[in-house]
Each structure stands twice: as C-alpha cells, then as structure tokens.
Amino acid sequence: MIDFSLYVITDERYLNVFNIYEAVERAIFGGATVIQYRAKRKTAKEMFEEASLVREATKHHDIPFIVNDRLDLALAVEADGVHLGQEDLPIDAARRIAGNHFIIGLSTHNLNEVEEASKEKFVDYIGFGPIFPTTTKENPAPTTGTKLLCEAVKISSLPVVAIGGINESNVDEVLKCKPAGIAVVRAAFESGDPYENVKKLREKIEGKI
C-alpha cells in the first residue's frame, strides 16, 4: 500500500543537477512519502540526469519515485511510476508498456474527470486540483477550491491526492476533506530548507500543531 500522505514534487525553477539530490533527500528526511520529478522546460538529457539523481536518492531511502508526464523517462531511470495528464499517453497504453507493478497516476480537474478516472482499471491514484491558485504551471486549470475537493474524495474509488497552491497556511483546510495525500511543489523548494519546509507540513498532517 502506497503512503501518498505527503507527495513532494520537484520544482525546476529552483532545482538542477547540482542541488537536486540534496534537496530531495532533505525533503525525505522532513517526511515526504512520495517524490515526483517534474520538469517542463528542460532538455531530455537534462531531465534524464536530474531524474537519475532523484532515483538514486529515493531508492537509498526506499521512497516511491514518480516521473511526471514522461513514461519514456520514467522507464529510462527505473522509476516506480508515472503521473499522466488528461492529454498525455492513454492510461491503457501506459499500462501495457510499463507492466502491472508500475504506479500510474492521473490528473483530474473536475468531478466528471474524477468519475471517469474511477472507471479506469489501470489507474492507481488521482491528483485533484488545482485547489488554490498556483504558479508552477503556465496555463493551470481553474481552481477547484476545497468544496470540490471534498466532493472528489467522496465520489472517487481511487486515492485522491490534492494539489495546487497548498502550503503551511492553507493545508488545514485541505486536510478537512481527508484526501489520501497532499502534493506540494513551492511549499517544499521555493525558499529555505526543504527539510524544515516539509517537516512543518508533516506535523500538520499528523495533527501535531
């Protein structure tokens, strides 16, 4: 059973081949339970080099490693799974290529997509959002807010990971919907120590604050 509770996604604006291993490892020490590598503006070679370092760090600490969008990259670095968007490679094709033990996640942005994803026998979990405004995507989908998140959690037959603009100041509102996990990008890597950033979120999740 995968622990999706604190799903940390790398941020290409602040991480590169020189610091990504240490940053990811610090996030893991802080309490990250899943690491996803995501990059949109880098070359395939740069992505391979960075993802390979993330694979090394996650393997060393026995943390599931997911690659965003790119199944080819995920397979090349021997990741544990891939996270696909609505316009990416079809889920059944990804499953056929990657095999039964590969983790496949799917992004959803509204309740219709959640319902459709629940019918997909090859999906292991869904991401739902953006819950709040986010700057990590150039053209993000409309924000859902927590009301729709709560509905998504109720109707989904799959684990739901909330994503989009989640940080220490608003995570309590998200946690009230009882998603399987929260995904963070900027909250982990934008400033400060990833260990401290993630640790604060971990404590929120565990009800220590």
UniProtKB/TrEMBL annotation:
Reported EC number(s) for this entry are 2.5.1.3
Keywords, ordered alphabetically: Magnesium, Metal-binding, Thiamine biosynthesis, Transferase
Which cofactors must be present for this protein to function?
Answer: Mg(2+)
Q: Write out the residues that bind 2-[(2R,5Z)-2-carboxy-4-methylthiazol-5(2H)-ylidene]ethyl phosphate.
A: 134-136, 165
Query: InterPro entries per the record?
Result: Aldolase_TIM (IPR013785), ThiamineP_synth_sf (IPR036206), ThiamineP_synth_TenI (IPR022998), TMP_synthase (IPR034291)
Q: What Pfam families does the annotation carry?
A: TMP-TENI
Positions bound to 4-amino-2-methyl-5-(diphosphooxymethyl)pyrimidine: 36-40, 68, 107, 137
Q: Which CDD domains does the protein's record reference?
A: TMP_TenI
Name the family.
Belongs to the thiamine-phosphate synthase family.
Its biological purpose is as follows: Condenses 4-methyl-5-(beta-hydroxyethyl)thiazole monophosphate (THZ-P) and 2-methyl-4-amino-5-hydroxymethyl pyrimidine pyrophosphate (HMP-PP) to form thiamine monophosphate (TMP).
The protein in question is named: Thiamine-phosphate synthase
Q: What organism is recorded for this protein?
A: Desulfurobacterium pacificum
Its gene is thiE
